[in-house]
Automatic annotation (TrEMBL):
<protein>
    <recommendedName>
        <fullName>F-box/LRR-repeat protein 15-like leucin rich repeat domain-containing protein</fullName>
    </recommendedName>
</protein>
<dbReference type="InterPro" id="IPR001611">
    <property type="entry name" value="Leu-rich_rpt"/>
</dbReference>
<dbReference type="Pfam" id="PF25372">
    <property type="entry name" value="DUF7885"/>
</dbReference>
<dbReference type="InterPro" id="IPR006553">
    <property type="entry name" value="Leu-rich_rpt_Cys-con_subtyp"/>
</dbReference>
<dbReference type="InterPro" id="IPR057207">
    <property type="entry name" value="FBXL15_LRR"/>
</dbReference>
<dbReference type="InterPro" id="IPR032675">
    <property type="entry name" value="LRR_dom_sf"/>
</dbReference>
<feature type="domain" description="F-box/LRR-repeat protein 15-like leucin rich repeat">
    <location>
        <begin position="78"/>
        <end position="216"/>
    </location>
</feature>
<dbReference type="Pfam" id="PF13516">
    <property type="entry name" value="LRR_6"/>
</dbReference>
<dbReference type="GO" id="GO:0019005">
    <property type="term" value="C:SCF ubiquitin ligase complex"/>
</dbReference>
<dbReference type="GO" id="GO:0031146">
    <property type="term" value="P:SCF-dependent proteasomal ubiquitin-dependent protein catabolic process"/>
</dbReference>
Length: 245
């Protein structure tokens, strides 16, 4: 019986791929036990810092493909750079709510060359410059920039993402009709676009976007400009449009 239990534990150690720890102080011991973890959810660990990320990157290395840091605010450029350089197979990074991150940290994220999905919602100190650094990773398919202080200036860089399918610009008050005119000429792969709470977008910008929408399937326009006849007319060529969330 005891040997059977040991065998089961041994199998778990070798094959466990996902982990969601409750306390960060046990991370070194846990990760050494589960060296093949590919998805690490740290949403229960709000005090992850640069040292924590260095430990994670040194233990997990290329096995790590996804990490959720959406409840942590105590890491910076150094920790993210260690993660990007040591975990070369990372495809998902969730940095939502990291309100202290600045453009330098965004440049560190850009070193994750295989990145496909990135969440930066409410990282309010990241500007156009930081986004310009990040989007050099041409593999990105999904990008969440909600509530960032970005403007039209970063859109040319975003438009270079040839594989981009999902873009979230919710609450980006610097985005306006001119921004959508720019989007019209790029991102032909874009399928979903969230413009919720973008108060400076009206029917002119939407008409321009839709006329060159490519494969755009589902724009989300909740809590935006008031619905007028002109706005309704600009949406008539779309099969589906989400006006609520």
């Amino acid at each position: 019986m005891l040997d059977g239990c040991k065998s089961l534990y041994s199998l778990e150690d070798k094959h466990r791929k996902t982990f969601k720890p409750l306390r960060q102080e046990h991370l070194p011991r846990i990760l050494n036990r589960y060296p093949h973890v590919s998805h690490l959810d740290l949403s229960f660990c709000p005090r992850i810092n640069d040292n924590s990320l260095t430990v994670i990157s040194n233990i997990c290395k290329d096995s790590l493909r996804s990490i959720d840091l959406s409840r942590s605010r105590f890491f910076s450029y150094n920790g993210l750079m260690s993660l990007a350089l040591n975990c070369k197979n990372l495809v998902d990074i969730d940095l939502s709510n990291a309100t202290e991150l600045r453009d330098a940290a965004a440049a560190a994220v850009a070193e994750a060359k295989n990145l496909e999905r990135l969440w930066l919602g409410r990282c309010k100190l990241i500007t156009d410059m930081g986004i310009g650094c990040i989007v050099v990773s041409i593999r990105i398919r999904s990008l969440d920039l909600s509530y960032l202080p970005i403007t039209n200036k970063c859109l040319p860089s975003i438009l270079k993402l040839q594989n981009l399918e999902d873009l979230v610009l919710e609450g980006c008050f610097g985005i306006d009709d001119d921004s959508l005119t720019a989007l019209k000429h790029g991102c032909k792969s874009l399928k979903t676009l969230d413009l919720s709470s973008c108060q400076n977008i009206g029917h002119v910008g939407l008409s321009s976007l839709i006329s060159g929408a490519g494969v755009l399937e589902l724009p989300t326009l909740a809590y935006g400009s008031p619905v007028t006849l002109a706005l309704a007319n600009s949406l008539k060529n779309l099969s589906i449009c989400n006006l609520s969330k």
